[in-house]
Amino acid sequence: MEYKRTRRSQKSPQKRFLLILGLTVSIIYFVLGLVIIFWDSFPLLVGVEPMWKNVFAAFLIIYSLFRLVRVLQDKRDE
Fold it and tell me: Which of 32, 34, 36, 38 has the greatest CB tally within 10 Å of its CB?
């Protein structure tokens, strides 16, 4: 009976950097979306109707989750 040894290779510094960058950007988008929703007088969106402000914040949160899934799928495939 032959046993196969699987050896996990380390990620290259470039792949590790891109993983950390992708996770960081996803978290930033998610937090920014939450800040826009809960901060009533967000400086960049003063004068925008609350409905559109919430739509934009929801878009940021959904986009951040999409990016996070993509980063985690890329990590799993390697």
Answer: 36
